[in-house]
Structures are given as structure tokens and as C-alpha cells.
């Protein structure tokens, strides 16, 4: 009895991965084994970086808030501590946007926070 290998499914699987690696450099785009390794590595990077993206954005928001606070003579840590005391519940994303794009609104928040002892 001949060996059954299901070439149709194998070819479909290879074509799928080769299609995904279409823009890669060198042999990574057209050699099956190299392409498969590159594709799997890319998936692991994507998984890792979906988590890292959240860290990077939080760090960016903190830098923007800190820059906005420093122009008003208050540090980031002091500002966030007083924000908690005044019970102003704005997250860092919104505060960073206010500091960058709406300086008057950010100034109003800073002035309100500065009054707290």
C-alpha cells in the first residue's frame, strides 16, 4: 500500500506561511525552512511587544505630564500625589493629552492641585 502524505494540505500550509513572509529579506521570503523559522520568530516578537507597547506608552505619558508640570514649578510625583488627595480621577493618558494639546485646561488642573497642602 502506498504511503499517504496529503500533499494538498502540506502545500497549502507552506503557501500560507510563504505568503505571510512575503516582504522579508533574502531567503527568509522564499526558502521554506528559513521562512517558517522567521515567521515563528516574528509571532513571538509580536506577542512580546503587544505587552511592551503598554509599558512604553505609560512611560511616554509620564514624561509628557512631567514636562507639563515642570513648566508650572511642580514635580510629577508631587503632582500625582496631590491629584490623589484632591480626588481628581484623570488617568495618565488623558493628563498627557491635556498637557500637550490643551495647556489651559492642564494649567487649571495644576492650579487646583497646588492649593492642596
Structural write-up:
- The protein has helices spanning 7-20, 32-70, 76-85, 92-101, 103-114.
- The chain is mainly alpha-helical and 117 residues long.
- The protein has a single domain, classed as Orthogonal Bundle (c-terminal domain of poly(a) binding protein), CATH 1.10.1900.
- The chain is rod-shaped, with a radius of gyration of 26 Å.
- The mean pLDDT is 95.
Sequence-ordered SSE layout with sheet pairings:
Blueprint lengths: L6 H14 L11 H39 L5 H10 L6 H10 L1 H12 L3
Domain count: the total is 1
SSE class: mainly alpha
Subunit arrangement of the protein: single chain
Please estimate the helix content.
Answer: over 70%
The H-level CATH homologous superfamily, spelled out, is Ribosomal protein L20, C-terminal domain
What is the percentage of strand-forming residues? under 5%
- Uncertain segments are none
Please tell me the overall pLDDT.
95
The CA-CA distance between the termini, in Å, is: 88 Å
Amino acid at each position: 500500500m502506498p504511503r499517504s502524505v496529503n500533499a494538498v494540505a502540506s502545500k497549502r500550509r507552506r503557501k500560507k506561511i510563504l505568503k505571510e513572509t512575503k516582504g522579508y529579506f533574502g531567503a527568509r521570503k522564499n526558502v521554506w525552512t528559513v521562512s517558517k523559522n522567521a515567521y515563528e520568530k516574528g509571532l513571538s516578537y509580536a506577542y512580546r511587544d503587544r505587552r511592551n507597547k503598554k509599558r512604553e506608552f505609560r512611560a511616554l505619558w509620564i514624561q509628557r505630564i512631567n514636562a507639563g508640570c515642570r513648566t508650572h514649578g511642580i514635580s510629577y510625583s508631587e503632582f500625582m500625589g496631590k491629584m490623589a488627595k484632591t480626588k481628581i480621577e484623570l488617568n495618565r493618558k488623558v493628563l498627557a493629552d491635556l498637557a500637550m494639546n490643551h495647556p489651559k485646561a492642564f494649567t487649571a488642573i495644576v492650579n487646583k492641585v497646588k492649593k492642596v497642602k
